[in-house]
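Can anyone check this?
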Amino acid sequence: MPWACVTAFPSGRRVLTRLGSVQGESAVVSSRVWTIPNVLSFFRLALVPVFLWLIIVGEDGLALLVLVFSSVTDFLDGFLARRLHQESRLGQLLDPAADRLYIFAALIGLCWREVIPWWLFLVIVARDVMLAVLGVILANHGFGPLPVHHLGKVATFCLFWALPLLMLGEAFEPLAPFSLPLGWAFALWGAFLYWWAGIVYIRETARVIRLPADDRSPRSDTLDGKEVDGA
């Protein structure tokens, strides 16, 4: 990310630092656009409208195939970026953006068909809007985004399982008694953890911007008092 200040250390620790400052060692990230991993990410993004349309018209089986194909390309672009040394700033933005768009597309399509209520969509979108606001606040104080908290990772994992399970129940009626309750369990738990992580981000943002400049970096690799590994 061109304005991110989360710096990777050899041990895997990540530190939130002032914009423009450099701490530790980080992998070389290029500004190239047309790399093989980025082309795969562009292709994933191009399939989002197709995925949404298939859900809206009730072709859940085909939508699931698109989702599986997207997941495979998601794995491939990360693998190839590392293997071919083609990590790029654009790729670091495209990958999470594609993940979010697939979640939003699934939510919109299922809400449109009244498979899930609109409040679930609004709860998830409101949290992401809140994170965007926090990002602006941090940028105005000279910081990049906070490291990803493990609660946010678990929440996203739950949602990535919830929506396909709900679609599976709609596509194949014999599986509905199993997949629909399980999908709802993942969805509700994921929404709860999504906002729990959001509250942690609010607290950490408030703490970071209030600290004296000299005290901000040493503790900035923690959220809620716990060290964060990876992003």
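Reply from J.R.: I decoded it. The helical segments are 36-46, 48-56, 60-83, 89-112, 118-140, 150-171, 176-210, 216-219.
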